[in-house]
Amino acid sequence: METTLNALTGANEQFLTGAALTAVGGPGAKHGIQLLTSSEVLDLGTLNSVEQAVLRKWVNTKDVYPYAVVLPDEPDSIIYLAKPTQPAASTADPVSGVPFPAGMPRIQSHLMHFKTLLEDNTTDRKERRPWWTLHRARETVIGNASADEHGWAPFCLTTRWGGGGKLVVGLAPGGSAPASGLHVLRPEGDLVPPAYLAALYNSDLYQEIALSLPPGQLRQADLERIGLPLLQADAVESVSKSVYELARLVTTLVRQESLRFPRVLETLRSDVTLSADLKSSWLSETGASSLWGKLQEATWATTEAKRAAGTPLGDVSFSDDLLGQVVTIHVRNEPQKTAAEIHLAGHVTVAASEALAAAIRGLAFLGGKVRDLGELYVPIDPEVLSQQKAEDDSRLDALLEQYKTERTKIEEALGQHVRR
Predict the structure, then answer these.
(1) Dihedrals φ, ψ of 368, to 5°?
(2) Cα 238 to chain center, whole Å?
(3) Lower CB count within 10 Å: N or C terminus of the chain?
């Protein structure tokens, strides 16, 4: 999927009339052309149903997770106008002589601002298509992308993984379109739902096969070479049901749990089994200012820097002194060096100190440095930290248990096929 032009730049403003340039924000505005931000979509005004169907949510590589593509809260949208299936009249100019599709007044009004620019780029590419279409729509692969009864489009997406990445396949949200660099996996006919493809490619067996492929970009031939075993119809339905549940769980993990457990996102992409420890790094939910404050002001902790303020934080370890526990923060990637120490008062429980350590690991994971330690917000009562951590851990454990249960169902169904 490729646009002709994503957005206006200073170099191509010359193609717009003064009125058109003013209408899209003036010089330097960098307004979207075929790719619009959520605010630019709102600026189009009230769209009719045809126009709403033309605007598709834009999926990037970073949005693809196993079992589900999870878009940001306010994703960009592509104006999905493909080349007409019926050829233009032989007397018509294929670039500028094909009328804009009827019934989309606000989309048409928007694109008309950029008509001269789009015509120039289409002609420059030596393409014989209307100026208002996409450069590469992939319409025969993507289709109308309307949502099924579960809310997903009739295809899966995966990235061109390489450089140590993993094969990750997720269901695409209904009404979405993949950016260039993503592979579309779409089954032929009605025998195999997209969810079944997601189950196969994310399974242990197929993950192992994928690791045997040559490193570098994933190509269509590589996917086809893996092959696709087809189970009985009832088994396909059961496996697909598990994938829909996994897609729901992954969406929850990405949208909600990653706010507290920052390792969730990278772990989903690197380990589809989610067997890694996700709870050791944690981000607390700060409470009221009357009950929370900076770590450097806490009466139950004394922070002592051992390195320069810009030293990156690494892992955490514990020891004891005469007064209580000592939390040692090491220099990132240099565990033999100490970045800082935090001396805890004697009344601080082990659970509270472990919760603090997890919060520091969360800070370190986000690139925190020695200077950031004192600014870390903690409760006046350290036990509040441990209680909050326990509640978050319990919620994450429940989701992970559901996730692993559904994956086990899929592995058992596929395993029975392999044994036969």
Answers:
(1) -65, 150
(2) 27
(3) C
Are residues 242 and 64 in contact, defined by beta-carbon separation less than 8 angstroms? no
For residue 349, how far is the Cα from the chain centroid? Answer: 38
**C-alpha torsion sign, points 321, 325, 331, 335:** positive
Evaluate whether 9 touches 117 at the Cβ level (below 8 Å). Answer: no
Cα torsion 317, 291, 394, 247: sign: negative
Q: What is the pLDDT of residues 222-272, one digit of tens each?
A: 666 766 677 788 888 999 999 999 999 999 999 999 999 999 999 998 899
| DSSP string for residues in 40-68 | HHHHT-S--HHHHHHEEEEE-GGGEETEE
**Any domain includes 265:** no
- pLDDT 10s digits, 288-342: 999 999 999 999 999 999 999 999 999 999 988 767 799 999 999 999 999 999 9
What residues make up the domain containing 380?
A: 292-386
The per-residue b/e assignment along 135-157, b for 16 or more CB within 10 angstroms, e otherwise, is: bebbbeebeebeeeebebbbbbb
Distances (CA, A) of 410 to 156, 260, 359: 17, 29, 35
How many Å apart are CA 376 and CA 360, to the nearest integer? 8
Indicate the residue among 87, 117, 138 that finishes a domain: 138
Q: Has residue 381 been placed in a domain?
A: yes
Q: What span, in angstroms and rounded, lies between the C-alpha atoms of 33 and 30?
A: 9
Bigger pLDDT: 188 or 153?
A: 153
